[in-house]
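Model the whole thing, not chain by chain.
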Amino acid sequence: MEHRHPSQRGLRAWMALTALLVFLGGYIPYRVLAGGAPSLAIFGFWVAFGVAVIGLIVLAVLRWKD
Amino acid sequence: MISSTLIWAAIAVFAVVGVLIALAARRENTGTAADYYLGGSRLGGLVAGLSYGATTYSAFMLVVLTGLTYRGGVGALGFELIYFAGLSLLVIFAPRFWLAGRKWGFISPAEMIGARYGSAAVARLMAVVSLVFLLPYCTTQMAGIGLLLSGVTGGKISLTAAVATGAGLALLWTLLAGLRSVAWTDAAQAGVMLLSALFAVGFAIAAIGGPGAFVDATLASHGQWLDLPGPGLWSLPTFIALALPWFFFAVSNPQVSQRLFVARDFAAMRRMIVWVLLFGFVFTLIAVIWGFAALQLAPGLENTALATPALLTSGAIPVVVAVLLIIGVLSAAISTLDSIALTVGSMVARDMIGAGASDTRQVFAGRLVVVVVIVFAAGFAIDSARVVDQLAALSAAGLLVTVPPIVGAFFWRRGTAAGALACLGGGAAVAVWLAMVQGVSVFNPWLAASVAGVSIGLFVAVSLLTQPRPKSLDFSEALREDLALHNVW
């Protein structure tokens, strides 16, 4: 049975989360939010997407040791 | 229109301040190649971060991205934020670039990749590919300056004069003290870019009647622009075509990946990344909101690249603020241009002439290349200012070919020099053939997908058919302890 180093598991989880976020960054606006009555929904979604990206990256670099 | 005299006066003040900063930076230089091209790798997080931000966020933002918003609506925000999400690659690659740079003294990303595969030819080809695809990007910075200055003055500042001004300042700040003067002026320019754009957007929204009135007016008159695909531009294939290559910008573009060598320590690198994130996010929102404001205050433009000059001269923005924003766009263009020129210069100095040459020779060679790059870009901009959108995006698609060898350098030991050469050469050839010969638009996802597919395929297939060179470096093994020490994934 393969034993992965804990940090590698963390990396894989973080990469999966990031990939999912990027996918949703295209999927939700185009496939869920598009085509409705004029609103700020898509704009608001992408602003939230940007904040989530910042959160994910900051979360990852905060664990670095100087 | 805005008085050309007023603009020249503002540029003069801007130039004097920039020269003073560059001269101060020059006093810190020690004369070595590492100092000239990397600032001795002693930059703090704030300067490194703002310099990274100013290099990445160029005149493209307030000229092209604003124009894309004006033309196609909210899809521009999504496209730019997918690029922004590409900064997540820094989590993986920033520490590895930095540690490799410290361990082996690399100055250019191409030099690092060449050493990894044990092949000077890989470094040289990577430098050539970067040069070929970055020149169009330089041209867009020049064209952005030209469009803006001639646009706001009704042609009283000619395209040629505008381009010459941008070229002159970029040359001066690069030649004076290399990366240190570029980084210091970049940091100051980042401040100018952000503050001027915030002021200008604030006045534009106020002129429409405040945030509520701005939203109501946009929903009423341009509701389609808040939807996808908008009035037609942002179909899903177009979105993918533009977003795919830009997602990898942080790794594929050497003028920004070289910044990963410059932080003085790990703490500075972390602060650098946080500053880039904050700067990039705010600046992206500003550029897009600015485009929506232009739809209200300067409607009916045929050439959407002129949205910013049209808004600045619409009467809604006080002249002082408009001039400040013009200096902001000029800053954005110059900070990107001088960084690209310096990076290309370093690649020629290190990868063409060789790290064995004296520091004086390496610095001289780099300076010569800086002059050639900027003069070439200026000349091309004067001839081709109207193709600004296409040229900017083509460079991102073309530079995709550098991604497989970079990823392989750290994560695939089986990657070989022959694989890297095939990937760089074959991928670049496909990019040029599709775009220039077949006329495939950068708005067609087939272009980026083909370039990515061919380059990955060639890298993997040729690597599996060949053997790693004896003198190739094993980054993953050599950096393992250091990565663990810094708790890096």
